Predict the 3D structure of the following.
Amino acid sequence: MHRSLKWLYLLVPCIIMVAFVLRIWRLDVVPLRGDEAFTAIHWTNPPFSERWLFFLEYEPNPASMVVYWAWSLGAGVSEFGLRYFSVLANTLGAALIIALARRLFTRWDVALSAGLLWAVHPFLIWHAQDARQYGLYVTLAVLNIYLLHRALHTKKPRWWIYVLSQTFTLYLYYFELFMVMVQALYVLVMHRKQFGRFLRVWMMIGVLLIPLAIQTYVVLFGRDYAGTATNADFGALFTQFIPTLFFGVPQTLLVIGLSVLLMMFILIEPMNSIRWLLGGWLLIPFILIFALSLITSVFLPRYVIAITPAFILIITGGLSTTNWTSSRAKIERYLIFSILIIMSLSQVYAYFYTDPPKSFDWRGLMTLVEARSSADDVIINDTSDTALEYYHRGDINIFFIPEDNPPIENYLPTLLDEHRSIFLLNGARTGDVQIYLRSNAQRLPILWNGLEHFRKWDVDPSEIQISTDIQIGDVARLVGYSWLDNDVLLLYWEALRQTDAPLNILTHFSTELNNPPVAVLDHQIAESQISTHTWQIGTVYRDPIIIPDLPDGDILLLIGMYETTPPYARLPITQGAQDHDGRVILTQITNK
């Protein structure tokens, strides 16, 4: 299209708005994942405070800590507040890639297409909603290329702007060194006469990076920093990295993606300068991350997220090349671009609504735990997960299994002795803990998969919320009951004598006393772990009952005891409450 496109200036704010809306949509619906919670807790310490200096020895990206500290002063450390910074920074990237594409290809259709692909790119949206440095970093990577290209093509370049931006980006994220090598190759091949000036500029940047070099040395060698991802896998470059960075789509579409990429790269053949820039931008970070991952665990697509803008520019540049001259070719161009947009939006929809969420539901977990717990309780986790710390709002203590995996006898008996309740969040290293607790404590039902609740068998009288004095025959006395939450009721039985055969606890839920029960949960005490045939006289036993789904309205809970042999006679209520055919009305439940 060669006619005047002045009206397309109106599309730039529209594209930026699309990018912003997609990035702010459902921003705080999913809880913070572990790394984001680490940002909230440890990257918001004031610079040069004791905690800040401590983490400076362990964190390789010091500017990230300063940036999030400054942001948190005004925005706080809520999920929305922390992520909103990344949203804004990454939305700005849409404007920057429009500017860069316009500079490289001198065409507004290319520029606007690049901005639109940025706006809907699933991988960029994912990280734009992440309280980490990646959303900002990929924007700065584009900015640095733009500033370098402008300096190389301007008679009176303002290199100082490039120096400041590039230096800050390296302090923010050390893998920006990959992009520095991309820039060096581009200048060496396409702007050889200016390579000397480029080196002098970089000598200036090198001086500014001396503190970073010292800090990085301490992190890498003084504290033995190691990556926490995976090691190099050549096949994963094609099944994981390229599909993720290119389209943000599953690997099943890899063949299509590679074919389109190859076609786009061939189509921009006349533009040798751009090919060198985009080719280096595409290949060098791939090569370097693979080589580095041979010696440390840093093999993840997000570490080279700066490649994604190169993919976008290659696609839009190839689709908009002047080689497409026929009307049919133009239709095919628009069709391909539309397919790319639809593919991206489908992945964005899946991210928001159908894919597993990026984070475990820490909010729901801790809400449940804290409804049951007090300052006398502890939750055990196998790893030092900062998300658990972030969502810890109550008084419960947190215990992380030490990294050196000491014998459980070194800590578990003490934890069980010193705390009323133990909540165990099962993980890779909790097997021995689970076995010990199941053997030495009472497991209480809790409606959360992967979470277990334990208490000592010895009942502390203070845990009984509502006291009663209901005697059933001469066998047992119901001394009280407690609610753990709306789903679990604890009965407390005092043994008066042992029986010849085990007795069952009658548990009926009924709308009226004389109506048939709507639910029957007859059982032996403590999920059949305690028998009236062998229980110890004078001991109080905790008996959990999971409340079933009940019809709306007022429901009576009827309790009693009966023999387990014919004719299944019920024991009379002899003290403390009215006998209703061997049953006592314990409480009324209102179900809505």
User: Anything to note?
Assistant: The mean pLDDT is 89. Residues 30 and 359 are 7 Å apart (CA to CA).
